[in-house]
Amino acid sequence: MGFTMPLMNMLNVVHLNCSRLLAFYWLPRDGSTTAPDIHDMWNFFYVVAIFFTVLVVGLMLFFMFRYRMSAKRQKADPSATHNTALELTWSGIPLIIVMVMFVVGFKGYMNIDTPPGNSIDIKVLAQQWFWTFTYPNGAVSKTLYLPLNRPVRFEMTSNDVLHGFWIPALSVQRDVVPGRIITTWVDATRLGTFHLQCSEYCGDGHSRMISPVIVESYSKYLADIKAAANLWVGADGKALPLPKVGEKLYNLKGCSSCHTVNGAPGTGPTWRNLAGSQVKLNGGGTVTANYAYLKHAIMNPDHLNVQGYAKGVMPDNYVEQLGGKGKYERKINAIIAYMNTISKHSNSASMPPAGATAPATSAPAAAAPPAGGVPKVAAAHVAAGKKVAMTVGCTACHSVNGTPSVCPTWQNLAGSKVKLKDGKTVVADYDFLRTMILQPGKINVAGATMQMPNMSAALVGPQYHGDQRLNDLIWYINSLSKRSNKASQPPQSSLHSTGGGK
Predict the structure, then answer these.
(1) How far apart, in Å, do the first and last CA atoms of the chain sit?
(2) Is the four-CA dihedral 140, 182, 119, 194 of positive or negative sign?
(3) Which residue has the higher pLDDT, 267 or 478?
């Protein structure tokens, strides 16, 4: 121990000095409390790697030149079979250096992996190809607001595929995995506007998956999230015009990930000059993009048949996303009003009704009620089932928005007719859903490319409060389906138990 500690202190001084020199060239300025540790570790490891690369390659080249075969054929010298001192040297020194790396790295890892107890919690949802942030006051935004010199804890998940949460200026990066809750934290120490980028390839729009990160004073942070909490009011506290609300929804609800507003090609038709235009359909024919068409396209995208675009790509749950029955109408009108402002074909027939106006003040949209035919009294069970799905990893293979995956999507599954690989068609009633979860080997759905593992029974089976966890999960699956009915739902007796059995 008397030898190890002085060596560690010496190496620490060397790597700190080298870190400052190297950071000048390619690492960003320290923008958070954890950044110095990360930069120092990176540079220390890099210097060690460079040193040994030069040493090994240099010796290799020296020996190749010094002991090369001469023109006259030589007899090989006898080789040494053992040298204790040399073996201890080339084993001991690397071992000490690697142990120093481990200690430094482990301390740094524990620091960046353990958020302070007084952290502000922000929920992060990643999906192709945008980020959504939910703040403690319920505000939802595509801009990440961070208070200066205050720790913030991120609770992150993905709605579809693997993404990477990366803010280079703040030296924070974490993979965001579908079906898992991933946490990390940051305490920003530098004011400014930075960028959050996706660091894991996630499809066509990966390079566009960027969100602004604004580090500001705490008072400004509170003002910004207060403004974000009210969709209908601007930062100045005044009511926004309907098209401006529609523009906020365009960015907030992910429309921008598929529909451009500048005429550029996208996954879906561009909104530039769409309202009031003639839309070509697959198989010939056209339809006018009037108000009724635009509203129908948002509410029932499964029926769209636009030339050049595949059917079934756009999720059909935007009514729920916009607040559910009785609350979506004004928001849809706002979106259509915005579409009209960017179309040269806009006319009275493509505009929302004259009476559609944004209220001067409006609270944030309430959470969507359970979908389909799920009774309101099942809301707690739906929420508990969603938590189960996220906790045990169901959504890593089963999408909930209709997106194709290795296993059947849960959107509109409950109560629907399901085709099997043997050609038969069965109804996804309660017994089917129960068997699908507990005995997946008995059900082979057509189109599924992966067999569900048999461990699910151990995760949600009858040992958990007499089927309560399983029933909560099935309630959640039903909430995602517009075909949900009594036959696909758990027994009514399950509603008398407390949701979320552990």
Answers:
(1) 47
(2) negative
(3) 478
In this structure, what CATH number is given to the domain that contains residue 200?
2.60.40.420
- Domain-located, residue 346: no
Torsion sign over Cα 188, 189, 190, 191:
positive
- Among 106-110, 164-168, 314-318, the minimum mean pLDDT is found in 314-318
pLDDT, tens digit (0-9, with 9 covering 90-100), for 296-325: 888 877 777 788 887 777 776 676 777 666
pTM for the full model? 0.51
Q: Where are the beta strands (DSSP E) in 275-357?
A: 278-280, 286-288
Written as six digits, the tokens of 189 are: 């120490």
Question: Which ranges constitute the DSSP H helices of 439-482?
Answer: 456-460, 468-479
* Tokens matching residue 281: 């359909």
Contact 279, 308 (CB under 8 A): no
Listed in sequence order, the residues at least 6 apart from 429 whose beta carbon sits closer than 8 Å to its beta carbon are: 415, 487, 488
Other Cβ atoms within 10 Å of 250 Cβ, number: 19
Q: From CA 158, how far away is CA 395, in angstroms rounded?
A: 9
Least confident of 11-15, 350-354, 382-386: 11-15
- For residue 260 the two structure tokens come to 């451009």
- CB proximity list for 410: less than 8 A, separation 6 or greater: 398, 399, 400, 477, 480, 481
Distance CA 357, CA 359 (A): 6
Same structural domain, 435 and 405: yes
Nearest C-alpha neighbor of 209 from the set 191, 226, 196: 196
pLDDT of res. 194: 93
389 and 481 in a common domain: yes
Query: Residue 181: helix, strand or coil by DSSP?
Result: coil
How many other CB atoms are there within 10 angstroms of residue 245's CB atom? 25
Of the candidates 309, 336, 332, which has an alpha carbon nearest to the alpha carbon of residue 322? Answer: 332
Return d(Cα 255, Cα 231) in angstroms, integer. 16
- Domain end residue (candidates: 46, 80, 113): 113
Q: What are residue 417's phi and psi, to 5 degrees? A: -95, 130
- Please identify, among 294, 317, 341, the residue that sits at the C-terminal boundary of a domain: 341
Per the structure, the count of domains in the chain is 4
Residues 225 and 247: their CA atoms lie apart, in Å, by 18
Residues 240 and 358: beta-carbon distance below 8 Å: yes
- For residue 181, list its beta bridge partners: none
